[in-house]
Amino acid sequence: AIVALNSTQGSPTSEYQRARLAAVLCEAYLGRGLAQLEEAAGTEEDEELFIRQALADFEAGMTACPRRTDLRHEAEQASAYLKVLTMEWYSYEKLIESLRPLVATSPDYMQGRARELLYQAYLQRAYDHQLASEPVAAILADYEAALALQVADPSEAQTRRAKLLQSMVQPLAETVIEETDHSSPESVKTKP
Question: Is 82 helix (H, G, I), strand (E, B) or coil?
């Protein structure tokens, strides 16, 4: 209602009235944008539409109140998340690059959905690295990064990490067994 009021309101005569109207207007833009984010978090179907609407409100608020850092912060986060939503899933490198700073500053952004997307991107990258026989350290680092996100259900990363560690230990154990099989134990001499 206040956002709509701005377009019909005549010019206030005093500087105080202008500043007060701008402050109220910016609060309205922020509030409506945050409400759009809440709607987006509740649905995957129209998520992109709600994020675009929220971003438009944050940007309009930034235009009206360029010094409001909260509006700028919300606009940056919505823009980063919208960028992620439009990316192809197989470009997990870009997904990770875009989501990492967003999740670092706001771990529960979109009710944790951003964190869950980052978790899935780490798992996919680790899986692809395993298929390509990449160094185990890189694969393990992705599983560790996924687990550090503390998602609601980390079992997939835990299982994959355990299997990777087991595969590293298994050849080592087999090598030790082979070495002990080939060497005969020294005979023990007893007194007659």
Answer: helix
